[in-house]
Amino acid sequence: MVDVKKLMSRSVTLWVGGAVLLAAGLVGGAGAVGLTRPGIEVAPIRPVAVASLAQRDGALVTVRGKVAEVYGDRFTIADGSGKTMVDAGRDDDTAVTAGQDLLVQGRYDNGQLHASFLVDANGRVRAVGPFFARGPHRGRPEGRHGPGGEEPGRGGPPPAACDAPPPPVPPAPAPVAPKQ
To answer: What is the per-residue pLDDT across 62-77, written as a single tens digit (0 to 9) for each?
Structure first.
């Protein structure tokens, strides 16, 4: 029988043990990353009426209609029952035009449809919205604010009224003693 102690010196044993620990760490780390990623949202295929969205607050929905107005990365979609605001993520992802037939899949929350997928009349599917954006602030590498720290579309320092201290709080009235 071969003696393992004679075959492997102390340094070889340490190298093999280190490699085993490193492999276990990589496998554990990959598993942890896989578990912490958000799940894939899949909206129901059957479109619902815009008028019924209020009863579905927080739910995944699909809405089919015409784009009524476009406001940058948001637009309104209308069907025969009403219209609702759609948040489609970043401006470069949206590319919708007024009058376009569109199917929107996403989560309806707080009176607004947060789109995950846009399907045009040709059946072309585009993944949009914050789930598919890079980073926590919807694809802006600079964070929430643009280059230089200012919000996009707004420039310059805040108004002087923002620097003023709050008004003093009046003293509380003295408690009234009960009558006996």
So the answer is: 999 999 998 888 899 9
